[in-house]
Amino acid sequence: MTVLIPGNLIRERLRLFSRAAIFFLAVASAGVALAQGPDEVIRTETSLVQLNVGVVDRQGQAVTTLGKNDFVVYEDDVQRPIISFEPTQSPFSLVMLLDMSGSTVNFRQQIQQAALRFLDALGPDDRVSVISFNSKGVHKLSGFGTDRQRSAYSITLATGGGETLFYDGLKYSLKELAGEGKRRKAIVVLTDGLDTEVRKGDRLAVQKATEAEVSTAIKPEANSTLVTVLTDADRQGVTIFPLALPSGDPKRLPLPDPLITAQYVAARTRLQMLADRTGGLLSDIRRLDEMSKLYYEVAAHLRTLYSIAYQPPPQNRDGKWRTIRIEVARDGLIARGKPGYYAR
Q1: Across the chain, where does the E strand assignment appear?
Q2: pLDDT confidence of 168, banded at 50, 70, 90?
Q3: Sequence-separated (6 or more) residues with CB below 8 Å from residue 92
Q4: DSSP bridge partners of 134
Q5: 165 three-class SS
Q6: What is the per-residue pLDDT across 89-131, written as a single tens digit (0 to 9) for each?
Q7: Cβ-contact 91, 271 below 8 angstroms
Q8: Which residue, among 243, 239, 279, has the nearest Cα to 114 in the 3D structure?
């Protein structure tokens, strides 16, 4: 049986089809992907460089009352327009990353008490996730939220021992933060920094070196795992604040073995790089009773950061190092942030 469709109906269907085709072509050319299903998400591709910036006066006091027009951003000495700006009062999405490897077993109580007090120093709208790592892997103890009682309870669940999966913990934390959208982001990690897998490579490097070469045999900045973490942190604009436990301090080693000392120095250097490259701070814990104080200092520092995003030129996405300079258009003020990034 043949069904005849009136000509005017055919023309109407063609017109609607043409409109739909034009819409989807426009969406595709804008780099937008449409997700299907009940939880539809629109994702846009962006190459913005995200910065968390602190400003101090000549006395070193934080200045928290500036606006977008007070800042000028340069990439490779060329001024770039600021696309977005968040004042210091804007909330953070924050990961509390806890080292529960064997090297922290003897002071778990101090770690948990300090972490609990840190929650009290955060803003009411800061979203916190608690994550730990030990020899059995990385564990999300609580997802992002503002319920401080829930976060506090999850801290008390942190336990474990054995190997230190520090960089796995950082990678997992960055993956979790990726789901927090355009919010300001940070990781506060309590660790000695002596990652088990990374140390295997460091150990091999010093074992192959001559006695005269041991102190320079390890190239901390060349480690591929560190580079991966820094690249992801750059992409998201995540600031990392390592709290370095005394168990990883090369100056506290009981025996002055050059091979072991070189490995500890490399691990501590990488912690410093994580802080410097992301605009954070490395805090050395010299005494265990200082942990709560240092956590409070990190919380206070978070509340002094502005978040700035700028658009780099497309031709700069060539994998090379790009230098960032931030100036404040007021006399006597100094801006502090990450010094640059690899344009991947």
Answers
A1: 32-34, 42-44, 49-56, 71-75, 78-80, 82-86, 92-99, 127-134, 137-145, 184-191, 238-244, 283-284, 305-310, 321-328, 334-336, 340-342
A2: very high
A3: 122, 123, 126, 127, 183, 184, 185, 186, 302
A4: 137
A5: coil
A6: 899 999 999 999 998 888 888 888 889 989 988 999 999 999 9
A7: no
A8: 243
Question: Amino acid identity, residue 213?
Answer: E
Closest by CA position to 191, among listed 226, 224, 165: 165
Count Cβ atoms below 10 Å from residue 42 Cβ, excluding itself.
Answer: 9
Q: How far apart are CA 125 and CA 146, in angstroms?
A: 6
Strand partners, 334: 56
CA quadruple 175, 179, 184, 186: dihedral sign: negative
pLDDT of the residue at 43 = 32
d(C-alpha 25, C-alpha 37), whole Å? 21
The 3-state DSSP class for residue 72 equals strand
Contacts of 222 (CB under 8 A, 6+ apart): none
DSSP alpha helix (H) spans, 101-189: 108-120, 148-156, 166-178
Report the distance separating Cα 297 and Cα 282, nearest Å.
11
Q: pLDDT tens digits, residue range 134-145?
A: 999 999 999 999
CB 68 within 8 A of CB 82: yes
DSSP state, 286? S
10 Å Cβ neighbour count for 159?
14
CB 131 within 8 A of CB 155: no
Rounded Cα gap, residues 175 and 124, in angstroms: 24
42-92 pLDDT, tens digit each? 233 347 899 999 999 988 899 999 999 999 999 999 999 999 999 998 999
Token match 């027009």: residue?
A: 69
User: What gap in Å lies between CA 176 and CA 46, rounded to an integer?
Assistant: 19
